[in-house]
């Protein structure tokens, strides 16, 4: 397997680390501004004429151990024996997310399928419903990972493309096939819970209406104080952890992607089940960096047998982590890349949601506010 980094910046234009014309797959992550400034799909298709090209818009790009904005980071992959199949569907809206996931999974032949990486519109997708639909159809042993496309902190328009220029309302999947594949993953957060636990007394799908019988948006604004004027972006700094009232070990983190002032409600990237328990969270730099390192360590375990040979490492971190850490955001990427070790070719993006198995249950879920890593190699 050979993984060749490709980048674009406004200053330097396109640059490929080596000849990528024989690649079978190209994955790219591009800032909205970069997608407006250059024909990303067309340029990558020219550089890699034999490759299937898949990618999305971002809240920031990860290239190696560096974090960039207004750029494109991509990788061209040439497999020795493995093969890939790319598929996509158009989603009608968040209410159709589960059906879209099932339809997308059905486009990937099950025979020989080892892993699936999904990129989805980050505004119009209910991420947890999407994952549920995918799981209904995919074989249980298939590793499912991915993320929701980003738009910086604007939450206005996210784009995904598979074999075509990126567009809204698209969900794409890359299916990885073959016995030679070595796939791995790691996903950790590092956020701290604070304040009282509150019952989710009214919710529907991914919309939260009431906590402890009080309008959820009113309560949340009290916690935010002056930052309430900057919603929904400021909510990224204070996500919610959500769990069953009788089960504390399989909690997931949820991030707000929109608010409804008239209904006094909050819209999340994934399901907020009524009857569950919610609690606010906040982040500290050292804990977030440690979480990224642990994700890298977990993912590296699955590639240890490759002995330092080239393997791809897809890093999907949450835009909330980037906004909180500011200039120190590179620290979490450096920590994750250092933990991945020799042979890893890292790239990734800052997302509106991460898809990976749960660290305790092993069941694939939508996550928020994590560093999630997928490793892909060949033995």
How would you describe this protein?
A hairpin with a 2-residue loop joins β14 (192-204) and β15 (207-211). The chain is built from eight helices and 26 strands. It has helices spanning 32-37, 40-47, 97-106, 127-137, 216-224, 285-301, 319-325, 329-340, and strands at residues 2-9, 13-16, 25-30, 52-57, 61-63, 66-68, 72-78, 83-90, 113-120, 143-148, 160-162, 170-177, 181-188, 192-204, 207-211, 214-215, 240-243, 252-254, 256-260, 265-268, 277-282, 311-318, 344-351, 353-357, 364-367, 371-378. With 379 residues, the protein is α+β, with helices and mostly antiparallel strands. The protein has two domains: 2-188 and 286-378, no CATH class; 192-282, no CATH class. The strands form four sheets. Strands 14, 15, 16, 17, 18, 19, 20 and 21 form an eight-stranded antiparallel sheet that branches. A six-stranded mixed sheet has the order 2-1-7-3-4-11.
Distance between the termini: 9 Å
Mean pLDDT over the full residue set: 93
Strand residue percentage? 35-45%
In DSSP terms (H or I, runs of 4 or more residues), the helix count works out at: 8
Low-confidence stretches: none
Please state the overall shape, judged from the principal axes of the Cα atoms. Answer: globular
Count the beta strands: 26
Largest sheet: 8 strands, antiparallel
Question: Helix proportion of residues, in percent?
Answer: 10-25%
Structural class: alpha+beta
Number of domains: 2
- Please tell me how large the radius of gyration is: 19 Å
């Amino acid at each position: 397997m050979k993984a060749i980094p490709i980048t674009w910046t406004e200053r330097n234009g396109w640059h490929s680390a080596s000849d990528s014309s024989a690649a079978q797959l190209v994955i790219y992550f591009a800032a909205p501004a970069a997608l407006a400034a250059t024909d990303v799909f067309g340029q990558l298709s020219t550089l890699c004429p034999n490759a299937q090209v898949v990618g999305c818009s971002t809240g920031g790009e990860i290239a190696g151990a560096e974090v960039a904005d207004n750029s494109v980071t991509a990788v061209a992959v040439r497999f020795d024996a493995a093969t890939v199949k790319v598929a996509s569907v158009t989603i009608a809206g968040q209410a159709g997310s589960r059906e879209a996931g099932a339809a997308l999974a059905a486009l990937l032949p099950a025979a020989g399928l080892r892993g699936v990486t999904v990129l989805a519109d980050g505004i119009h997708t209910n991420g947890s419903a999407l994952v549920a639909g995918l799981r209904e159809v995919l074989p249980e042993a298939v590793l499912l990972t991915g993320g929701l496309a980003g738009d910086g902190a604007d939450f206005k328009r996210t784009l995904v493309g598979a074999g075509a220029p990126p567009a809204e309302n698209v969900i794409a999947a890359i299916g990885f096939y073959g016995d030679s594949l070595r796939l791995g993953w790691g996903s950790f957060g590092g956020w701290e819970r604070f304040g009282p636990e509150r019952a989710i007394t009214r919710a529907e799908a991914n919309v939260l209406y009431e906590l402890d019988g009080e309008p959820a948006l009113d309560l949340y604004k009290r916690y935010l104080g002056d930052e309430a004027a900057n919603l929904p972006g400021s909510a990224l700094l204070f996500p919610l952890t959500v769990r069953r009232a009788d089960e504390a070990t399989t909690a997931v983190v949820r991030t707000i992607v929109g608010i409804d002032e008239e209904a006094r409600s909050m819209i999340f990237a994934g399901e907020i089940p009524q009857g569950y328990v919610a609690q606010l969270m906040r982040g500290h730099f050292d804990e977030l960096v440690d979480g990224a390192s642990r994700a890298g360590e977990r993912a590296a375990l699955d590639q240890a047998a490759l002995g330092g040979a080239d393997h791809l490492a897809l890093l999907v971190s949450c835009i909330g982590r980037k906004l909180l850490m500011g200039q120190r955001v590179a620290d979490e990427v450096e920590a994750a890349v250092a933990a991945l070790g020799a042979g890893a070719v890292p790239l990734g993006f800052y997302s509106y949601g991460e898809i990976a198995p749960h660290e305790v249950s092993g069941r694939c879920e939508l996550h928020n506010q994590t560093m999630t890593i997928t490793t892909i190699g060949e033995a």
